[in-house]
Specification:
Distance between the termini: 15 Å
Number of helices: 8
Helix content: 10-25%
Strand content: 35-45%
Largest sheet: 12 strands, mixed
Shape: globular
Length: 380
Amino acid sequence: MRFGSGVSISQATGDALEEALRRALTGISPAPDLLVCFATFHHGSSVAIIAGRLASATSMTGVSIGAVSSGVVAGSEEFESGAALVVWAAWLGNASASAMRLVAFRTDEGIGIGGADTPDDTKGVLLLADPYSFPAGQFATSLGAVPVVGGVPGSLAEESVLFLNGQIYTNGAVAVALSGQVSFRAVVSQGCAPVGEPATVTKAAGRVVEEIAGIPAVRFIEALIDDLDEFTQEQVHNGLQMGVALDEYAENRGPGDYRIISVTAADRATGSILVTDEIAIGSTVQFHVRDPRAASSGLNDAVAGLEGGSGMLVFSCSGRGRHFFGQPHHDASLVAAACQPAALVGMISSAEIGPVAGTSYVHSYTAVVVEIGDPDQVLP
């Protein structure tokens, strides 16, 4: 396998695309089997140029996929503001890339998903989804042990712009399944630290949590905050997260034993809270606060399990970045230094998708890294 990547900060979309594409294709011959592109909103009005050019640059059976987002990652740098466009290219050898255009529809039983057609030997799926019209979490968990990695474009205030094989979409999702002789290794780094003690959700409906431990959820949180020190209380006010236990029977839980979702609203009249994913009655939860120290050490530990030297993609939450860590390029520079990938690009996301404990979920405030490579290659 061979990988390449390129970046351009030109504000002219055509120039930026050609510059990034030229750099990404250096050393890639024959034509790439997979092209991944992320562009900032500065290029949103010219996305047709991007989608068409990428489709024409792939092999006859190749796939081009990408999205417009608030920021991008290129090598050891994160472009959180200003115009930027990145391209990641791969010649996959004996592996295959299969494109999927995914849509959601209502059924008598709930929400169905159309377009999901993964080969029997799929090793992993790259997924880019619109947050309002596609249940990314439902699709990710439906694939069981097959890892799903990706993100939601990095600004909920902007209309999603996704592209796949020259076509542009503003709803649903686009995806590519990798099968055959390919290694697809993904890790998730959560940027939170636990507060309080675990408790059981005793009343809930969808994304609304009404009671925890038999009392209204708002009252449970108020009691939790009252027991915290002043510094941790300030962290709560910067954004409270809910960790949902992945193993209900585990006795001692630590980092990686919860999937992290956000608390987005509270209703004092009813005592309920709204979270970013559905919660089942009986779930064990523990609240978390965003913590840059935990986020940094967590990412360092996560990527230590990767081999490095192959092609890598990163999905880093827009709630991380320079304002969270107090310095620019934190996630990108850490991954680049630890893994020294042959090619590394990524997207700043508003939500991330990745596997924890063998199943893929939608996460908040995480960094998700996937390493794609040749399973037979001995890497440094």
